[in-house]
Amino acid sequence: MGTIENGLQAVKSRVARAAASAGRSDREIVLVAVSKGQSARAVRTAYMAGQRDFGENYAQEAASKMAELADLAITWHFIGPIQSNKTRTIAERFQWVQSIDRLKAAERLASHRSGAGRAPLQVCVQVNVSGEQSKSGCRAEEVPGLARAVAQLPGLRLRGLMAVPEATSDEALLRARFGAVRAQLEALRRDGLDVDTLSLGMSADLDLAIESGSTMIRVGTAIFGERSKA
Ligand SMILES: *Cc1c(COP(=O)(O)O)cnc(C)c1O
């Protein structure tokens, strides 16, 4: 096996182990392979090994890879900051957008997507769970209002929440961060929103995220190795 196949296999083993120790089935957890900074060829290799969901942070980089990979049935997830001038590209090319952090961006995506015959764009609201200035995502207190507004937009289907906690080796802190996002998702459900997705966990912390209830993990380096600067 090549290194990408090995990486995928290792991540799947981690998912299975974490799910088992949390008394969950690993089939509840979607693995999104984050291919930013990786070549189209690397994506193709992972696809041939059975991987179907891929995540990208930059619309332009993604669009050129998609052109090379048009023969593959990939589900593409946009997980980066949403620039207003990229909303058309994002709405037209991706199946998921996990990084909705303001209503304006969601409205622009909706207007580009809601044309006849298109499946709705599956979206998550991204929450800045650590409160760091530099981090993407809306503030925690904005989640209920933003989620409710996004759920009303045509062309979009609100699926849940996504978050990236601060990089830390403090497991208790990470558990608290993941737990806070999970509590917010449960609050949305109590409010009557039909949401099922908790997108938490990356290469370093996917095990803890799964123990904390994550249903979708976004993993780059643990599959592909270090990325070249995009
Ligand atoms: C880059 C990125 C990832 C993947 O990070 P790794 O540490 O390489 O697994 C996951 N989520 C988001 C939002 C990212 O930007």
Proportion in β-strands: 15-25%
* Unreliable residue runs: none
Q: Give the N-terminus to C-terminus distance in angstroms.
A: 27 Å
How much helical structure, as a percent, in the residues?
A: 40-55%
- How many DSSP-defined strands? 8
* Series of secondary-structure elements, N-terminal to C-terminal: HEHEHEHEHEHEHEHEH
Walk me through the structure.
The chain has 230 residues and is of the alpha/beta class. The protein has one domain: TIM Barrel (Alpha-Beta Barrel). 42% of the residues lie in helices and 17% in strands. The protein has helices at 3-21, 40-48, 59-68, 87-93, 103-113, 143-152, 171-190, 206-211, 221-224; strands spanning 30-34, 53-56, 75-78, 96-100, 121-126, 156-162, 197-199, 216-219. Strands 7-6-5-4-3-2-1-8 form an 8-stranded parallel sheet. Helix 4 crosses helix 5. It is globular, with a radius of gyration of 17 Å. The relative contact order is 0.16. The mean pLDDT is 96. Pyridoxal-5'-phosphate (PLP) binds at residues 34, 36, 57, 79, 164, 202-204, 218-222.
Secondary structure: elements and pairs:
Layout: H1 3-21, E1 30-34, H2 40-48, E2 53-56, H3 59-68, E3 75-78, H4 87-93, E4 96-100, H5 103-113, E5 121-126, H6 143-152, E6 156-162, H7 171-190, E7 197-199, H8 206-211, E8 216-219, H9 221-224
Parallel strand pairs: 1-2, 1-8, 2-3, 3-4, 4-5, 5-6, 6-7
Helix pairs in contact: 4-5
The site of pyridoxal-5'-phosphate has 13 residues, from strand 8 and helix 9.
